[in-house]
């Protein structure tokens, strides 16, 4: 059904999904299983169908900074790296079409943390069984993709740290370990099993499913009754239009663009919005706050020559450590890169080896949290992102990186990895003190592209919660948020599968799945 409004021609559907990323693809596929339910997906980027640049997993690194990247930057980071490109995907499938597809189930304690923060119904017993509904093809890195140097990293890491070698990190919850990651991919052909490939590609011919690609959503609008039911968009031709949801609007634009869209529409910290001339529709002080990430640093070695060419995506293995053995979860993580990732060390003046590898010590549950805000009321202007890296008062995040750099050196000095390495390039063996390692580690720090938390869910009496445990936008009927922005705290490990689980659960909360009967118990 179409009509004309002051915002251009208007079309209506039962559900309108703003963002065709990881969560949006799940919702679109699941909700459109009902042939009488009309579903529209608004996605700012193009399709990934038939595009090998997107579909071949090992090409991920070439997507950073490309036309498929919104390319957000951060404000000055006095204790971190102010030059990080915070890549956000501009393509169907979102970051699952853009990242390395490392796929971990959330650890039970991560979900326990959510419940402790007032998120009833997000306990491990409720959430983890949704793994049986996932359509993505998640498997450990295939034998043919296991590079010899990555195998030797795993052996050396186990010997140096004493942790077990884990064959499948998703087989059961783990406290520590080293091994090859599980990936959402088809090893034959090195093809992604992204949310787009797994959920949407098989159902693109459904007559009740509409994809509006290269269409930018820039403001939420009320209808004649004052209910928030519409979204103002601009299509690929630049012409304005409006899309109306007769049941619910589902915001799935991610931890940057979902709060950005809310604030542009008058939902957010009232004083900030008024200062920009934006009419306040709801004073929600938590919108844009609680900005989370997995910060990491890097240590680089030169190898004697070129490495064997086989790999799934050049960062196929890793390590998880507990520095406090009585804790149930790792508090230090590493990726092992079979390429020298030198984008930050080169800027600091370090040489770039022709052949090399690196380890990236990572802070699984960083205690430094940031915020994002609008710079102006202009929808085209990028928001300000301040991750406040390494600012937690206790110095936990900084200490994690320093400890990680030291552990990395121990692994590099252990057979059989040691025999591959010629020299440490960055920071170099002369950098040994805690202060020097901290200075280097923070300046060379990067992101694993895991922003989250900016529209966090919480209990009704939590003043900073943006949505309730049913993912409903506070104080508004008919709008839910379904993406990583709802995370109240960061999962220990790579969060893509957690986003998939949130989306599968959201289908039930909407009444569109087999678990819908249980949703009344969550109220």
Description:
- This protein has 523 residues and is an alpha+beta fold.
- The chain has one domain: 3-Layer(bba) Sandwich (FAD/NAD(P)-binding domain).
- The chain is 21% helix and 21% strand.
- The chain contains twelve helices and 23 strands.
- Strands 1, 2, 3, 8, 9, 10, 11 and 23 form an eight-stranded mixed sheet that branches. A six-stranded antiparallel sheet has the order 5-16-17-18-15-21.
- Helix 1 packs parallel to helix 12, helix 5 crosses helix 10 and helix 10 packs across helix 11.
- It is globular, with a radius of gyration of 23 Å.
Topology at a glance:
Elements: E1 2-5, E2 8-18, H1 22-31, E3 39-42, H2 52-55, H3 108-116, H4 124-127, E4 138-140, H5 148-161, E5 177-180, E6 182-186, E7 191-192, H6 195-200, E8 209-212, E9 216-222, E10 228-234, E11 240-251, H7 254-264, E12 267-268, H8 270-275, E13 282-283, E14 295-296, E15 299-303, E16 317-321, E17 332-337, H9 343-347, E18 356-362, E19 371-373, E20 384-386, H10 396-412, E21 421-426, H11 434-443, E22 446-447, E23 479-481, H12 496-509
Parallel strand pairs: 2-3, 2-11, 3-8, 11-23, 12-13
Antiparallel strand pairs: 1-2, 4-6, 5-16, 6-7, 9-10, 10-11, 14-22, 15-18, 15-21, 16-17, 17-18, 19-20
Helix pairs in contact: 1-12, 5-10, 10-11
Family: Belongs to the GMC oxidoreductase family.
GO molecular function: choline:oxygen 1-oxidoreductase activity; flavin adenine dinucleotide binding
Domain Glucose-methanol-choline oxidoreductase C-terminal: 367-503
């Amino acid at each position: 059904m179409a009509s004309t409004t002051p915002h251009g021609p208007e079309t209506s559907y039962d559900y309108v999904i703003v963002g065709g990323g990881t969560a949006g693809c799940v919702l679109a596929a699941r909700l459109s299983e009902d042939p009488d339910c009309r579903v529209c997906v608004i996605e700012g980027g193009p399709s990934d169908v038939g595009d090998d640049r997107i579909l071949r997993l090992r090409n991920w690194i070439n997507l950073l900074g490309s036309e498929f990247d919104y390319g957000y930057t951060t404000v000055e980071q006095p204790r971190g790296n102010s030059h990080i490109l915070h890549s956000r995907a501009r393509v169907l499938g979102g970051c699952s079409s853009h990242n390395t597809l490392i796929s971990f189930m959330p650890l039970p304690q991560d979900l326990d943390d959510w419940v402790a923060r007032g998120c009833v119904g997000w306990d491990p017993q409720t959430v983890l069984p949704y793994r049986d509904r996932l359509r993505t093809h998640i498997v450990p890195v295939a034998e043919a993709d296991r590079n010899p140097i990555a195998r030797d990293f795993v052996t050396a890491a186990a010997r140096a740290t004493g942790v077990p070698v884990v064959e499948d990190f998703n087989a059961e919850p783990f406290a520590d370990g080293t091994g090859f990651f599980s990936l959402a991919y088809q090893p034959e052909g090195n093809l992604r099993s992204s949310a787009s490939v797994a959920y949407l590609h098989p159902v693109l011919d459904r007559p009740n499913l509409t994809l509006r690609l290269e269409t930018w959503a820039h403001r939420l609008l009320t209808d004649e009754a004052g209910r928030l039911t519409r979204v103002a968009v601009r299509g690929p031709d630049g012409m304005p239009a409006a899309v109306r949801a007769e049941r619910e609007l589902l915001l799935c634009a991610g931890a940057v663009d979902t709060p950005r869209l809310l604030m542009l529409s008058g939902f957010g910290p009232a004083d900030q919005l008024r200062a920009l001339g934006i009419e306040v529709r709801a004073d929600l002080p938590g919108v844009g706050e609680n900005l989370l990430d997995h910060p990491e640093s890097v240590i680089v070695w030169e190898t004697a020559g070129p490495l064997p060419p086989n790999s799934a995506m050049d960062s196929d293995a890793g390590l998880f450590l507990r520095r406090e053995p009585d804790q149930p979860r790792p508090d230090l993580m590493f990726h092992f890169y079979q390429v020298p990732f030198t984008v930050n060390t080169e800027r600091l003046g370090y040489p770039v080896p022709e052949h090399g590898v690196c380890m990236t010590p990572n802070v699984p549950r960083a205690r430094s949290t940031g915020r994002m805000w609008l710079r102006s009321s202009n929808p085209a202007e990028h928001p300000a992102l301040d991750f406040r890296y390494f600012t937690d008062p206790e110095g936990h995040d900084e200490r994690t990186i320093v400890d990680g750099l030291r552990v990395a050196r121990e692994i590099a000095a252990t057979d059989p990895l040691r025999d591959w390495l010629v020299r440490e390039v960055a920071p170099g063996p002369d950098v040994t003190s805690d202060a020097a390692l901290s200075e280097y580690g923070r300046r060379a720090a990067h992101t694993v592209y895991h922003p989250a938390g900016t529209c966090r869910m919480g209990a009704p009496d939590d003043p900073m919660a943006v949505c309730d445990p049913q993912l409903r936008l506070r104080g508004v009927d008919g709008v839910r948020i379904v993406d990583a922005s709802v995370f109240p705290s960061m999962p220990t490990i790579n969060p893509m599968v957690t986003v998939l689980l949130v989306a599968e659960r959201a289908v039930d909360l909407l009444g569109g799945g087999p678990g819908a009967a249980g949703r009344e118990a969550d109220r």
